[in-house]
Design a protein that fits this description.
Strand content of chain A: 15-25%
Distance between the termini of chain B: 23 Å
Order of helices and strands of chain B: HHEHEHEEHHHHHHHHHHHHH
Shape of chain B: elongated
Strand order of the largest sheet of chain B: 2-1-3-4
Largest sheet of chain B: 4 strands, mixed
Strand content of chain B: under 5%
Largest sheet of chain A: 6 strands, mixed
Oligomer: heterodimer
Helix content of chain A: 25-40%
Structural class of chain A: alpha/beta
Structural class of chain B: mainly alpha
Order of helices and strands of chain A: EEEHEHEHHHEHEHEEHEHEHEH
Number of helices of chain A: 11
Radius of gyration of chain A: 24 Å
Helix content of chain B: 55-70%
Number of strands of chain A: 12
Largest interface: A-B, 29 and 26 residues
């Protein structure tokens, strides 16, 4: 299978702090791939190594089946860095063309494409203005243009949603969909699970520099669902009472607070966790036998947010110190 | 190959951003106005003594042994002095020898006259001729009076000693003494002119370095503060970024210096005409002209010296995260430059001495001092070659060390590295 990116055994230390600790993952071509993790997990450091900003202490990075991080790979990668910034005194059109030229386009081609991209992002009439004259949102779009102008096969976006309003967040999601539709690959990092869930095909969750899990989001969700949460909606008050006996059966429903999960959505009255060895099928049969009228019976597919919180744990979401400052 | 291309693209951007800025245009044009002002203002400040209304009180005796009462006395010096001053376009008036000083002081206060000169009775002996006036501090006024009065007094002394005017002229003729700079092979035009030119070269390089090498540093820091740095280092090698920056800023500097030098040369060439426009006059001996070889060597030191210091300043920029921090970190570098400029007199005083030889070989100072030492004839071809090789090698070493520091330092925000961390960066 052809890969947009293969990362094997990546390690990066800053002094005594291990920012990235033996991380491996593979990004197939034509997918949207999310690297998820709390602040300080090592996401940006990983992306920076792929972009040849940092050299890894150990491990291997292969870009687009055959390139090492460096100038040749850079011509095929578009990168939206975590540190957003442009030359404030430069004209918007010149800024975009300048980056395009450094990414390998000829000067004429760069100027032409810069004009096209600015028009596309609705910034055409600002091309002759200085970057500093633009609002922050518009500067974000210009930054985005610098990542896409050379039509890279692999687009890497570091925390693309940070600082975006809901409308521009939507614009960004559309742009990512469009890149995927054209058969190219998007790799992004984020800690905003809601945004990621709407887009990603594959995820890799990391925390404290270590990989916790990776794979297709659907597979992961199926796996997590099998361990199972069931969401119940009762037909009436009588049904609720009738259900009590069944839900108290420890062979069907797990004990303790975990069994009484707060329902995640308004349609459910109750969310229960199945006991070990129990199946949703058996629970349904027991409820029906007990004469409980059900308005709803649903095997809950866990949200990415839930998977993330379960895996990473609440403690790890506390921001650690920035690895760069060490 | 792509490194070279990247470097040039970055250099072009740096150059364009500078050349297009209003400040650059303003300073490039105002610089020469400043230079013209430097030539003109001293002349204007000195002032033109022509038209000075001066009154002469001469208390000397008209001839030996014949000395009427002060009231009737007509001194021996008043008339020739008055004539000589009139020739210099002053407006002299001879007044009574017994005029009280207070009367004249009042006339100065009331602006009826600029001043008055008192020639005492013993002026032909040890007496002091005193001028008091509202332009009494002007060197031109002082020199004019000193020159004329001493000539007239000497002539009168001669006449009374019955020495013929011809004989007297040959006795009081000034003795010419000149000192010339030479190394035994060739001879510079004049010691003073060579020194002046060498001094000017040292200072121009000092200025160019402090302006443009520091501009490189500021440009690095600004890339950090505007947070564009990560985009740049993801796109090009930090080495190319640094090289492009040094080239681009240096190019802007070269354009500016070329414009300045052209205007400066024109100003010097047409000095008299320009001064004439402002109603001032001035002279001065011509500067020695440079041979083509000397110009080439001076330019080599300019370029290498700029690259040498620009690399150091680029590394300094990479080490800090804000403009304020640069003050402290750049201090050692600035001190190095100051040591160089302070040593100018040591080198010019003994161009062939040991100190001069050492200072013009050490790369920190050779760009500032060697052009001057060459002009003064103190350096052999071998010494120049050695110094250039040392400077070139040092520049390459400094640039590659700076590139390493740059590579690690550009993405550091916050805390400044300790010397030990800096050493670690060098080994990356």
């Amino acid at each position: 299978m052809s890969h947009a990116l293969v990362v094997r055994g990546l390690i990066k230390k800053f002094g005594s702090h291990v920012a990235v600790d033996d991380i491996s993952f593979e990004v197939p071509r034509g997918v949207v791939y999310g690297i998820l993790g709390p602040n300080g997990a090592g996401k940006s450091t990983t992306l920076r190594m792929i972009n040849d900003i940092f050299a890894p202490d150990a491990g291997e990075i292969v870009v687009l089946d055959g390139f090492r991080p460096g100038p040749e790979a850079a011509a095929r990668i578009g990168y939206l860095p975590e540190e957003r910034g442009l030359y404030p005194k430069m004209k918007v059109g010149d800024m975009v063309a300048f980056i395009a030229e450094l990414r390998g386009l000829t000067r004429g081609d760069a100027r032409h494409k810069a004009a096209v991209w600015l028009d596309r992002l609705g910034l055409g009439q600002w091309a002759k203005n200085k970057v500093a004259d633009l609002s922050k949102g518009m500067q974000q779009k210009v930054q985005f243009a610098t990542a896409l102008i050379h039509e890279p096969e692999l687009v890497i976006l570091d925390e693309p949603w940070s600082g975006l309003d809901p409308i521009n967040a939507e614009v960004l999601r559309d742009a990512v969909e469009e890149i995927r539709a054209s058969g190219r690959t998007v790799l992004f990092s984020t800690h905003q699970m809601e945004q990621a869930e709407k887009l990603v095909d594959h995820v890799c969750i990391i925390a404290r520099g270590k990989k916790l899990l990776d794979g297709k989001l659907k597979d992961i969700q199926r796996r997590e669902a099998a361990e199972g949460l069931v969401s119940l909606g009762f037909g009436d008050a009588a049904a609720r009472v009738a259900a009590q006996a069944v839900l108290a059966d420890r062979s069907l429903v797990a004990a303790g607070a975990a069994a009484l999960v707060e329902p995640a959505d308004g349609g459910a009255d109750r969310e229960v966790k199945l006991a070990d060895g129990a199946t949703a099928q058996r629970l349904l049969a027991a409820l029906v036998t007990a004469g409980v009228t059900l308005r709803r019976f649903e095997v809950v597919v866990p949200s990415l947010h839930k998977i993330f919180v379960d895996r990473v744990g609440a403690s790890a979401t506390v921001a650690e110190r920035r690895p760069e400052a060490s | 190959m792509s490194d070279v291309r990247d470097t040039l693209v970055i250099a072009r951007r740096e150059l364009a951003e500078r050349v297009q800025s209003k400040w650059f245009v303003a300073i490039t044009l105002l610089g020469p106005i400043g230079m013209v002002a430097l030539v003109i203002i001293p002349s204007l400040l000195i002032g033109n003594p022509a038209g000075t209304r001066i009154e002469i009180i001469d208390q000397t005796c008209p001839a030996e042994g014949r000395c009427p009462a002060l009231h009737d006395r007509k001194g021996a010096l008043a008339t020739p002095l008055s004539e000589a001053l009139a020739l210099a376009q002053w407006k002299p008036v001879i007044i009574a020898a017994d005029t009280p000083e207070q009367v004249e002081m009042d006339r100065i206060r009331d602006k009826q006259i600029n001043g008055f000169v008192t020639i005492p009775e013993d002026a032909l002996g040890a007496g002091v001729i005193v001028y008091r006036g509202d332009n009494g501090s002007s060197p031109v006024v002082r020199e004019t009076l000193r020159l004329l009065a001493s000539q007239l007094v000497q002539a009168e002394r001669g006449r009374r000693a019955q020495i013929s005017p011809d004989k007297l002229a040959s006795i009081i003729q000034p003795v010419a003494v000149e000192s010339r700079q030479t190394n035994g092979k060739n001879e510079a035009a004049s010691g003073q002119a060579s020194f002046f030119l060498g001094y000017a070269l040292a200072y121009i390089l000092f200025l160019v370095i402090t302006i443009y090498a520091v501009a490189v540093m500021r440009s690095v820091v600004q890339e950090k503060t505007s947070r564009v740095m990560e985009l740049m280092v993801a796109t090009v090698k930090p080495r190319s970024l640094m090289a492009g920056k040094i080239l681009g800023v240096g190019g802007a500097g070269l354009i500016q210096v070329a414009i300045w030098l052209t205007i400066g040369a024109l100003t010097l060439a047409y000095r008299e005409q320009i001064l004439g426009l402002f109603g001032a006059s001035g002279g001065g001996s011509g500067l020695p002209s440079l041979s083509a070889g000397e110009v080439v060597v001076a330019l080599l030191y300019f370029v290498l010296g700029y690259f040498f210091y620009a690399s150091i300043y680029a590394a300094v920029g990479a080490m800090v995260s804000s403009e304020q921090d640069t003050q402290q970190v750049q201090l050692p570098v600035t001190l190095l430059l100051v040591v160089g400029i302070v040593s100018v007199t040591a080198v010019s005083g003994d161009p062939r001495g040991f100190t001069a030889a050492v200072m013009t070989t050490v790369p920190f100072w050779s760009p500032l001092l060697m052009p001057m030492r060459i002009l003064l004839g103190g350096a052999s071809a071998g010494e120049v070659a050695l110094s250039l090789v040392v400077l070139a090698v040092a520049t390459v070493l400094v640039a590659s060390a700076a590139a390493r520091i740059y590579r690690v330092g550009v993405l550091m925000y916050g805390k400044r590295p300790s010397p030990r961390e800096l050493l670690r960066w060098l080994r990356y």
